[in-house]
Write a structure and sequence with these properties.
about 70% helix; mainly alpha; globular; three-stranded antiparallel sheet; five-stranded parallel sheet; Rossmann fold
């Protein structure tokens, strides 16, 4: 058989060396995704094959899977599943051992060769597909624990959406796995070129991704290639002509040599004529067999190709022998496939429409008779391409259900679109309403706009004029849930759904009542929401529906927290956490932990909220969803640490999530917390960028907690930058955004900072502007005082006290005692940064009302300690400016040298110090104060620094000397 390819690699030595280096790094625990890009025929596959055979892969497990162009579609996760099967059942089972049951069950559904117990009830929320990505990454990581893994995914320009998204997830979340992923991508060639370019851009922005572009051969490299193929020195003139006509494309060089390099016309790169010349030179039986092979669009088993081509196996082998010998087709012990995808595309594109339909029909019939050789998606695509509506409808329904079964919702939606379009023609008798309900669920989980609602309405119509009430309720429930951005519309649909159900207890009724309660809470209708959640819980308990009871407790607990019944709220939420974990329902369990943390914030226990975020993260790990849900807990913990004055820890959490795949909520929280930290440190341009991004994330329908939270940060940034007029303008905008939708945890912070902006303007601007600012401050303080009550969250009441103190600056009654009380309240709530700002104002008021430098130095020195510890540059600059203007440098220095623990420590730190003096370990301190051991350790470290002592023993002596132990 004449040689058509070079026996050794040419022109890619640098790329091969780079892959070897990445392989060595991966073996040492540094994950990389290597993206190999280039035009069709440029040698991507050849480079990968050479790398697989190189010494760099000698000790690695190489798993390979190619994306397939089957009518433009592939089965969900197709290349990844094909690659993992190459690991062997024994390796897969060993890697699966020790995983949570829910993870093993889901992976076994995705990779049917794995044995497994019947799966637990499945959580089919929109986040479920993200968990599937996480499970696959965990599986790869566990395989790589025993042997480095090289995962090859070729032709990702043809990849199904699930595979693309999973690769992006891996690139964003893998870090220390002994894993190297090689992905090849054909440039300038995809069904949706713009979407492909956007996707590749997303990949390349990941810090773990390394890209390499394969360029055409130089003339010298073409000459080397020709020499290697012909095994004789290449003629310079011939090489020059070949290089010019092929533009240095190695595949086209091989094609010219296969033609004898006699064609005079330039080889067209974007057309198929030259590629077809060798095919047309083959015998007629070979060409017919190649047409069938092209209709498959993948490697095909001998028996399957024989059936589709209607040729007995021996006759098929003889028909394809000339194609194999002519290097058009490659054959192994079981399959035939085109040597290069370009040739397959040329053969397929040359077919007339009628020929294609006939061939796809033959392929579909062969696949239908051999289900073990195909999958539902491939069969559906082939029947649709064959224009066989009846068969296509049944296959498309099966394909959609199979895709949804592995959370491949984007693929499921495409098949459901095919189903809906096929209903006008002939087809089997199917339950259209149920199919449309399933389709609407898939479209919602895929994040498709409008389609879920459209299919729900079609489904209601399909139920007829007198629909079954229970089935109608399911559609109304979806219409309510899918329109959570239109709260009144959503509530109306929930009411219609409830009206369809029997009044007796049922799981469906309990869940509906819980959904209604959650929607009422978004409308800030706390009392109504609590009543509905209580009804949901009662119905769930009567129906014996524990999962729904857990959901109801999760909603009810949050509502009770907002209404001030904290102990009862926490009891419900603890039970909701238990139920969610017991039933291995990540959505329900993590929601309960999030709500529990919010209740801790509502009751003013910020360290406790931070501790709950740690518990939630541990629960996510136990459930195998750390990457999917752990990020939200980490971000909430970073928010808490910002308020607690643990800025370095908060920044470390944010840095750890750099480049991670985040949800809408997580992205918003990352931007907002990053902006506040940057602003506090004086990195104003960076802060503006973060907060602009956070603001851009908000929607008109965003819950008040997000709008108020981001709005307050935007106003404070302007104040930090010294732009009081801009801060006041921002305050007016942000207050308008929440008007009529105020709530009691985040809105008070927005109002307080708005009043601060107004106070700054009122005390420095011209008379007209000052009067308007004064009026805004008076109105907002009056409104907030009327909005809050004794049962309001302590943090809200602290914000009210701060707003009243700001107002006192406007009317000239600035009282140091008022600011001292505000600082003490923030100390009690463990908000050192806010307390330091209040002490700055206290020092200013003291300077204006007394000449006692010692009195002024006390709050000033305490605030300076906090600002220095936090690295709060703008606040520190304001404090130092006041110190210089008031000529208090010496007084502050004396205060710092003689200050006792009451002057330099927060209330929480004094509590910790008293326990240190009694010999408590960090663990015992944590148990006594209901904080984590790590938080206790951070408090102790901070105390040692503030007291300028080097040991716990010395700190205890200071505590006893100042009477803290007796007081405790």
């Amino acid at each position: 058989m004449p040689r058509i390819a070079s026996p050794h690699l040419i022109g890619r030595e640098a790329e091969l060396q780079r892959l070897s280096e990445l392989s060595a790094a991966a073996a040492a625990g540094a994950f990389t995704l290597a993206l190999i890009k280039g035009d069709a025929g440029i040698g991507k596959t050849r480079l990968v094959r050479e790398f697989e055979r190189s010494a760099a892969c000698a000790d690695a497990l190489v798993l390979s899977g190619s994306c397939m162009a089957i009518g433009g579609e592939d089965t969900p996760y197709g290349p990844l599943v094909r690659a993992l099967r190459g690991a062997g059942a024994e390796t897969l089972q060993a890697a699966m051992s020790g995983l949570p049951e829910v993870m093993r069950a889901e992976l076994a559904i995705l990779i049917p060769t794995l044995s497994h117990t019947p799966p637990l009830p499945r959580d089919s929320s929109r986040g479920a597909q993200g968990r599937q990505y996480e499970y696959l990454l965990e599986l790869l990581g566990r395989i790589a624990d025993s042997q480095p893994v090289v995962l090859v995914v070729e032709d990702i320009h043809w990849a199904d959406p699930s595979t693309r998204h999973c690769l992006l997830f891996i690139a964003r979340n893998a870090r220390h796995e002994r894993l190297l992923v090689l992905a090849t991508h054909r440039l300038h060639d995809a069904a949706d070129l713009h979407a492909a370019e956007l996707y590749i851009g997303q990949l390349e922005r990941c810090e773990t991704v390394t890209s390499m572009v394969l360029h055409p051969f130089s003339e010298a490299q073409v000459r080397e290639q020709v020499t290697a193929i012909l095994q004789t020195p290449a003629d310079v003139a011939d090489s020059h002509r070949i290089a010019a006509r092929t533009q240095g494309n190695p595949f086209f060089v091989e094609e010219l040599i296969a033609h004898g390099a006699t064609t005079e016309a330039p080889l067209p790169r974007a057309q198929a004529a030259a590629l077809l010349e060798r095919v047309h030179a083959l015998p007629e039986p070979s060409q017919r067999a190649l047409q069938v092979l092209a209709a498959f669009g993948r490697a095909v088993h001998h028996d399957l190709l024989s059936a589709a081509a209607d040729l007995p196996e021996p006759a098929l082998t003889e028909a394809l022998r000339p194609a194999v010998e002519g290097h058009v087709v490659e054959a192994d012990a079981t399959t035939f496939t085109f040597r290069h995808a370009l040739t397959r595309e040329a053969v397929y594109d040359a077919l007339l429409p009628g020929e294609r339909r006939r061939l796809h029909g033959a392929v579909a019939a062969a696949l239908h008779d051999r289900p073990h050789m195909t999958n539902a998606g491939e069969l559906a695509v082939q029947w649709r391409a064959a224009d066989e509506p009846r068969a296509a409808l049944a296959a498309s329904i099966a394909a959609a259900q199979a895709a949804a079964g592995v959370y491949a919702y984007s693929e499921a939606v495409e098949h459901y679109k095919g189903v809906v379009s096929l209903w006008d023609g002939e087809g089997p008798d199917v339950d259209r309403a149920q199919i449309l309900l399933d389709a609407a669920d898939a479209a919602n989980r895929a994040g498709v706009e409008d389609l879920p609602i459209e299919w729900c309405r079609l489904g209601l119509a399909a139920l007829g004029d007198e629909p079954d009430p229970r089935r109608a309720a399911a559609f109304y429930e979806r219409l309510g849930r899918f329109q959570d951005h239109r709260l009144d519309t959503s509530l109306e649909y929930y009411r219609q759904a409830l009206a369809c159900l029997d009044a007796g207890p049922s799981a469906e009724r309990a869940r509906l009542l819980g959904d209604e309660a959650l929607t009422l809470s978004l409308s800030v209708r706390w009392d109504e929401a609590r009543d509905r959640a209580e009804q949901a819980l009662a119905v769930a308990l009567d129906a014996g529906a524990e999962i729904e009871a857990g959901f109801a407790r999760s909603v009810l607990g949050l509502m009770l927290g907002y209404l001030g019944a904290f102990d009862e709220a926490e009891a419900h939420l603890r039970e909701a956490c238990r139920i969610g974990e017991a039933h291995e329902r990540p959505d329900d369990a993590t929601r309960a932990y999030v709500h529990l943390g919010e209740v801790r914030r509502l009751r003013g226990d910020l360290p406790g909220a931070r501790a709950v975020m740690g518990e939630g993260l541990e629960a996510a790990r136990r459930l195998g969803v750390e990457a999917s849900y752990g990020r939200y807990f980490a971000l909430n913990a970073a928010e808490d640490e910002y308020e607690l004055g643990q800025w370095r820890s908060a920044q470390a959490r944010l840095d750890a999530l750099s480049g991670a795949s985040l949800t809408w909520t997580e992205t918003l929280l990352l931007h907002a917390v990053s902006g506040q930290l940057a602003a506090g440190r004086g990195e104003l341009e960076a802060a503006r960028g973060w907060l602009d991004a956070a603001t851009a994330q908000l929607r008109d329908s965003s819950a008040t907690e997000w709008t108020a939270y981001v709005g307050a940060a935007v106003i404070e940034l302007e104040l930090t930058a010294g732009r009081s007029l801009e801060a006041l303008a921002a305050a007016r905008r942000q207050l308008d955004r929440v008007r009529g939708r105020e709530e009691q945890l985040y809105t008070p912070g927005l109002v307080a900072v708005a009043v601060r902006a107004a106070a700054d303007v009122a005390t420095s601007a011209p008379a007209a502007q000052a009067a308007e600012a004064r009026q805004l401050a008076e109105i907002q303080v009056g409104w907030l005082a009327g909005f809050l009550s004794e049962r309001s969250p302590p943090i809200a009441l602290a914000h009210l006290a701060g707003a009243r103190a700001e107002l006192s600056r406007v009317d000239g009654s600035d009282d140091p005692a008022t600011w001292r009380a505000v600082a003490a309240e923030w100390d009690r709530l463990t908000h050192p940064y806010r307390a330091a700002y209040a002490r700055l104002r206290e020092a200013e008021a003291l300077r204006a009302t007394t000449g006692d430098r010692t009195l002024v130095a006390a709050p000033l020195g305490a605030a300076l300690d906090v600002a220095r510890e936090l690295g709060a540059a703008p606040l520190l600059a304001d404090l130092e400016t006041l110190t210089r203007r008031a000529r208090l440098q010496s007084a502050v220095a004396r205060r710092s040298s003689s200050a006792g623990p009451r002057e330099v420590l927060t209330n929480r730190e004094q509590e910790v110090l008293a326990l240190v003096a009694q010999g408590y370990s960090n663990k015992r301190i944590g148990e006594a104060l209901f904080i984590t051991q790590r938080t206790a350790g951070l408090h102790v470290s901070r105390i040692l620094g503030k007291l300028s002592v080097s040991s716990r023993h010395e700190a205890g002596a200071v505590a006893r000397r100042h009477g803290l132990v007796d007081e405790a």
